[in-house]
């Protein structure tokens, strides 16, 4: 049952054509109906990710979408209504969502409707607003760690450790008992990953030979694996620190892809949004203090500025506040 206070229309950021940030405009749209397996969420905040820009450009358009498209696969808010088949979340609960398939629109709106399987309770210790920036990157980081399947005490090097996925991966890796060498971007990035518990924090903008030397000092027997949030020549040099048979894992979409070479195993991975992964993610997050670092927050009316900011460098995540 939908709360009587819910209006028939909502404010949303949407686009009718593909292109640059200028195609996104605010408009009033109908609030979608809720099917038996769906939930209606009053959105508090929405994460802003590069995948949103790809959607805006027409590169990654969710299956079943039709114009006008409301982007935003990541968000957090309060469940206002739930279909008859929904059992994992309840009306009134604060949830976060990661919904790559969302034919009824995304989280850049006052309300969104998604399949309940893509929603989970906001974990203890994470501010509800910040939870909106977390889902896709956190689930992707977890998939990367699953791909590596390292034992506690192993040495993991995370390249791009201060980025959206990277800073969450640092914390999830420490939850799994791994020794983490975090290669971050600039002094701010190094400070962030150090605060988040990295055992060794290095500036990827520094002298690469010095970075390699410090990695070898920390792990003289070799690094067991690399989680690469970016590709290119630097990653290929970092593989020199791997043990024989060491693994480089990278998320699909990282370009250029890490290079294959003798003694190095290269694997790609993708994040998954499903009840099992969401439960695992919440259990890991609730094991101790957890930070979703928001570099900058924009109101929904500044969505174009948020997408322009996506094209720059910053630690952590960008966030739209809706409520």
Primary descriptors:
7-stranded mixed β-sheet; 323 residues; Quinone Oxidoreductase, Chain A, domain 1; Rossmann fold; alpha/beta; 26% helix; 2 domains; oxidoreductase activity; 6-stranded parallel β-sheet
How much helical structure, as a percent, in the residues?
Answer: 25-40%
Coarse structural class: alpha/beta
Number of strand segments: 15
Point out poorly predicted stretches.
none
Report the average pLDDT across residues: 95
Sheet-strand content, in percent, reads 25-35%
**What is the CATH domain class of the largest domain?**
Alpha Beta
- Supply the CATH superfamily name of the largest domain: Medium-chain alcohol dehydrogenases, catalytic domain
Order of SSEs, N→C? EEEHEEEEHHEHEHEHEHEEHEHE
- What is the 3D form? globular
Number of separate domains: 2
CATH architecture of the largest domain: Alpha-Beta Complex
| First-last Cα distance | 21 Å
Largest sheet: 7 strands, mixed
Might you state the CATH topology name of the largest domain? Quinone Oxidoreductase, Chain A, domain 1
Radius of gyration over alpha carbons?
Answer: 20 Å
Number of helices: 9
Description:
The protein has 323 residues and is of the alpha/beta class. It has two domains: 9-134 and 292-321, Quinone Oxidoreductase, Chain A, domain 1; 137-269, 3-Layer(aba) Sandwich (Rossmann fold). 26% of the residues lie in helices and 29% in strands. The chain has nine helices and 15 strands. The strands form three sheets. Strands 3, 4, 5, 6, 7, 14 and 15 form a seven-stranded mixed β-sheet that branches. A six-stranded parallel β-sheet has the order 10-9-8-11-12-13, sandwiched between helices. The protein has a two-stranded antiparallel sheet with strand order 1-2. Strand 8, helix 4 and strand 9 form a beta-alpha-beta unit. The two termini are 21 Å apart. 47% of the residues are buried.
